[in-house]
C-alpha cells in the first residue's frame, strides 16, 4: 500500500527543476522561439558562409558594379563589385562576434566586482557604487568611441572598448541580486554549516541570481552589436576589409540614390537581429521569473 | 526640498569634474596629436605650436589650466577651427542639437503615453495588440538603423523629405522620428503596464463607485498615478536620446554637437572633444536632476528628507 501511494504522488507532480520549467515556458512563447531560431539560423549561416555563397566578401567583380538583385547576385553588388549577400553573411560573423565576446569581457569584469561588492558590502561596496553612479553620468557611446580611438586597431580592440564600458550595468545588477539573496534562510544555513564567503557566493548566491544575469546579457548583446555597427558606420569600428554591417551602410550611403539595396539589406539585418534578441530576452525574462512558477 | 536640491547640485558638479578628468586623461592617450596632417609639419613647428597652446606642459598642469578656464566659462580653443573658441563652436551647434532633441523628446512623450494609455484602456483588443507589437519592434530598432530605413523610403523612393541638412522644417521630420521611436516605444510599454496596474487599485474603484464621471476618474485618478513610472524613466530616456543624436546627426548631416564630437575625435581636437563630452554629461546630469525634482511634484507621497 505504502509504495502505491508513493507512486501516485510521483505521478501527480513530476520532478521539475527551475531550468526545466523555464524551458517549458519559453517553448510556449512563439515570439521568443522565433527570435531564438532566427539567431541560431543566422549564427549557422555566418559560420558556414563559404558553403552558402560561392563569393568571398572581398572578391571584386569590376564588370558587375552596383547591380540590382538577380539570380547571380541575390542581393546585388556594391560599388566595388562585391556580392552584397556574401558581405552580409560574413558581416554577421563580425556582429555576432562583437555581441558575444564583448559580453565575455563584461562578465569577466562585472561579475567579480559586483559579487564582491554585494557580498562584502561596507566601504568597498560604497566606493564601487559611487563609481557606477559617475559612469552613469557619462554618455556611454562617447566613452566607447574615445576608448576605441585610444586602443586603435580592429575588432579585438572593439570587444575591449565595449566591454570596458558596459560591465557597469552587470556589476550593479549582480550586486543588487546578491544583496537581496544574502539575507535569505538558506544562505544563513550555509553559513551556520561553516561555509566560507567565496564558497557561499559561488555555490549559492551566484546560481540563484543567474536568471536576471542571463536576461540582462540577452539584452546587452544587441546593444553591443548596435555599437559595433554605429562605430563602423562613422569609420572608427572594425577596419576594412573586415566586412561589417556598419561599414556596408556607410559605403552604400554614398551611392544611396544610385542603388539603395546595399544600404537597405544591412540595415534590415541589424533591425531583424535586434528584434530577435528583444523577443528572446522578453521570453527569457518571463520564463525565468520564479514568481510565475506553479 | 531645498537641501535635497543643493545636495544633488553638489553631486552633479562632482560627477562633471570626474567625467572631465576621465575624458581629459583618455583624450591625451589617443595616439597622434592635433597637428597631424597628411603633409607632416616640421618638428620645430609642432614644438612651437605645442608651446603656444601649452601642450608641452605636464599633464596635470594642462588639466589645471583647463579647469581654470572652465571657471570662466572658457573651454579653450579648438585646434581645427583656429579662428573660433570651443565655446563659440558649441554655441553654434547647440541650437540644432537642442531643437532636434527637444522635438524628438516631446514627440516620444506624446506618442508613447497616448499609445500606452490606449492599449491599457482597451486591453486584449486589436488596439492593444497593435500597440504592443509596434512598441516591441520599435523598442529594439536603434535610431541609427531606423534613420537609414526612413531615408530609403521617404527620400530615395518617395522623394518626400531631403536626406539631411539643417534649416527648413522638412529637414527635422525624419531625424526627429528616428530619434523618438525608441524612447516612444519604451514609454508606451511602461505606460501600458503602469496604467493596467493603476486601474486595479482600490482608489479607482472607490472613485467610480462614488459616481465620478469616467472622464474625471481617467484623468485625475488613473492618468496622474500611472505616469509616475513614466517620469522615472523620462530622465534616462532623455539622456539616451541626446546621446543617440551623435550618430543620427552624422547620418542626417546635421551640424550639431554630436557631429562636432565625431569631427573632434578624428582631428584629435582636444578642446572640441572635451567641450562636447562635458556638454553631453551636463545634459544627462540636468535631465536626471529635473526628474528627481519632478518626481516629488507629481507624487506627493515622496518626501525629501
Q: What key attributes describe this structure?
A:
heterodimer, A: 294 residues, 0% strand, B: 305 residues, mainly alpha
Explain what the structure shows:
- Chain A has 294 residues and is mainly α.
- Helix content of chain A is 74%, strand content 0%.
- Chain A is built from 13 helices and no strands.
- Chain A has helices at residues 2-12, 18-28, 30-47, 49-52, 84-120, 122-136, 140-151, 155-182, 185-192, 197-208, 210-233, 245-253, 261-288.
- In chain A, α8 (155-182) packs across α10.
- The model of chain A has no long low-confidence stretch (mean pLDDT 82).
- Chain B is an all-alpha fold.
- Helices cover 75% and strands 0% of the residues of chain B.
- Chain B contains twelve helices and no strands.
- At the A-B interface, α7, α11 and α13 of A face α1, α6, α10, α11 and α12 of B.
The helical percent of chain B reads over 70%
Class by alpha and beta content of chain B? mainly alpha
Radius of gyration of chain A: 24 Å
SS element count, helices of chain B = 12
Sheet of most strands of chain B = none
**Quaternary status:** heterodimer
The geometry of chain A reads as globular
Major sheet of chain A: size, sense and barrel closure? none
Number of strands of chain B: 0
Q: Count the strands of chain A?
A: 0
Query: What is the averaged pLDDT score of chain B?
Result: 83
Beta-strand content bin of chain A: under 5%
Q: Give me the strand/helix succession of chain A.
A: HHHHHHHHHHHHH
Low-pLDDT residue intervals, each spanning 5 or more residues of chain B: none
Proportion in β-strands of chain B: under 5%
* Ends distance of chain B: 7 Å
Brief characterization of the structure:
The complex is a heterodimer of chains A (294) and B (305). Chain A has 294 residues and is mainly alpha-helical.
Amino acid at each position: 500500500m505504502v509504495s502505491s501511494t508513493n507512486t501516485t504522488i510521483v505521478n501527480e507532480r513530476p520532478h521539475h527543476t527551475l531550468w526545466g520549467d523555464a524551458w517549458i515556458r519559453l517553448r510556449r512563447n512563439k515570439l521568443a522561439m522565433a527570435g531564438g531560431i532566427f539567431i541560431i539560423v543566422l549564427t549557422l549561416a555566418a559560420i558556414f558562409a563559404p558553403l552558402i555563397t560561392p563569393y568571398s566578401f572581398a572578391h571584386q567583380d569590376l564588370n558587375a558594379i552596383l547591380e540590382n538583385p538577380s539570380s547571380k547576385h541575390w542581393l546585388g553588388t556594391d560599388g566595388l563589385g562585391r556580392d552584397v549577400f556574401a558581405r552580409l553573411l560574413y558581416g554577421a560573423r563580425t556582429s555576432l562576434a562583437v555581441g558575444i565576446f564583448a559580453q565575455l569581457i563584461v562578465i569577466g569584469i562585472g561579475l567579480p566586482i559586483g559579487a564582491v561588492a554585494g557580498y562584502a558590502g561596507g566601504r568597498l561596496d560604497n566606493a564601487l557604487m559611487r563609481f557606477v553612479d559617475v559612469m552613469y553620468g557619462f554618455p556611454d557611446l562617447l566613452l566607447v568611441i574615445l576608448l576605441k580611438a585610444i586602443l586603435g586597431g580592429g575588432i579585438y580592440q572593439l570587444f575591449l572598448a565595449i566591454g570596458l564600458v558596459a560591465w557597469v550595468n552587470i556589476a550593479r545588477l549582480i550586486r543588487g541580486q546578491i544583496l537581496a539573496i544574502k539575507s535569505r534562510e538558506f544562505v544563513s544555513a550555509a553559513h551556520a554549516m561553516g561555509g566560507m564567503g567565496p564558497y557561499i557566493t559561488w555555490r549559492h548566491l551566484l546560481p540563484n541570481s543567474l536568471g536576471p544575469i542571463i536576461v540582462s546579457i540577452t539584452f546587452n548583446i544587441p546593444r553591443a552589436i548596435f555599437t559595433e555597427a554605429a562605430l563602423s558606420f562613422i569609420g572608427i569600428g572594425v577596419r576594412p576589409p573586415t566586412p561589417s554591417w556598419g561599414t556596408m551602410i556607410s559605403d552604400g550611403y554614398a551611392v544611396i540614390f544610385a542603388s539603395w539595396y546595399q544600404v537597405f539589406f544591412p540595415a534590415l539585418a541589424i533591425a531583424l537581429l535586434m528584434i530577435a534578441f528583444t523577443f528572446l530576452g522578453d521570453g527569457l525574462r518571463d520564463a525565468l521569473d520564479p514568481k510565475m512558477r506553479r | 526640498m531645498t537641501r535635497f536640491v543643493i545636495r544633488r547640485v553638489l553631486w552633479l558638479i562632482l560627477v562633471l569634474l570626474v567625467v572631465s578628468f576621465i575624458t581629459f586623461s583618455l583624450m591625451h592617450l589617443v595616439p597622434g596629436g592635433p597637428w597631424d596632417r597628411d603633409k607632416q609639419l616640421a618638428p620645430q613647428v609642432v614644438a612651437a605650436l605645442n608651446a603656444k597652446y601649452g601642450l608641452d606642459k605636464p599633464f596635470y598642469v594642462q588639466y589645471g589650466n583647463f579647469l581654470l578656464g572652465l571657471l570662466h566659462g572658457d573651454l579653450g580653443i579648438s585646434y581645427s577651427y583656429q579662428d573660433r573658441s570651443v565655446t563659440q563652436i558649441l554655441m553654434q551647434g547647440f541650437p540644432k542639437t537642442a531643437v532636434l532633441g527637444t522635438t524628438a523628446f516631446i514627440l516620444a512623450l506624446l506618442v508613447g503615453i497616448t499609445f500606452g494609455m490606449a492599449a491599457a484602456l482597451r486591453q486584449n483588443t486589436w488596439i492593444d495588440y497593435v500597440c504592443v507589437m509596434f512598441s516591441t519592434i520599435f523598442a529594439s530598432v536603434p535610431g541609427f538603423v531606423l534613420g537609414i530605413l526612413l531615408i530609403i523610403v521617404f527620400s530615395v523612393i518617395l522623394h518626400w523629405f531631403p536626406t539631411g541638412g539643417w534649416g527648413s522644417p522638412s529637414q527635422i521630420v525624419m531625424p526627429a522620428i528616428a530619434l523618438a521611436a525608441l524612447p516612444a516605444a519604451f514609454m508606451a510599454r511602461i505606460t501600458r503596464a503602469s496604467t493596467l496596474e493603476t486601474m486595479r487599485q482600490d482608489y479607482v474603484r472607490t472613485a467610480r463607485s462614488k459616481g465620478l464621471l469616467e472622464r474625471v476618474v481617467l484623468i485625475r485618478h488613473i492618468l496622474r498615478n500611472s505616469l509616475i513610472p513614466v517620469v522615472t524613466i523620462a530622465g534616462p530616456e532623455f539622456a539616451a536620446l541626446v546621446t543617440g543624436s551623435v550618430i543620427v546627426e552624422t547620418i542626417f548631416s546635421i551640424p550639431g554637437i554630436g557631429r562636432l564630437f565625431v569631427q573632434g575625435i578624428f582631428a584629435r581636437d582636444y578642446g572640441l572633444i572635451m567641450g562636447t563630452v562635458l556638454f553631453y554629461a551636463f545634459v544627462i546630469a540636468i535631465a536626471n536632476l529635473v526628474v528627481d525634482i519632478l518626481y516629488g511634484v507629481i507624487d506627493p507621497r515622496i518626501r525629501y528628507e
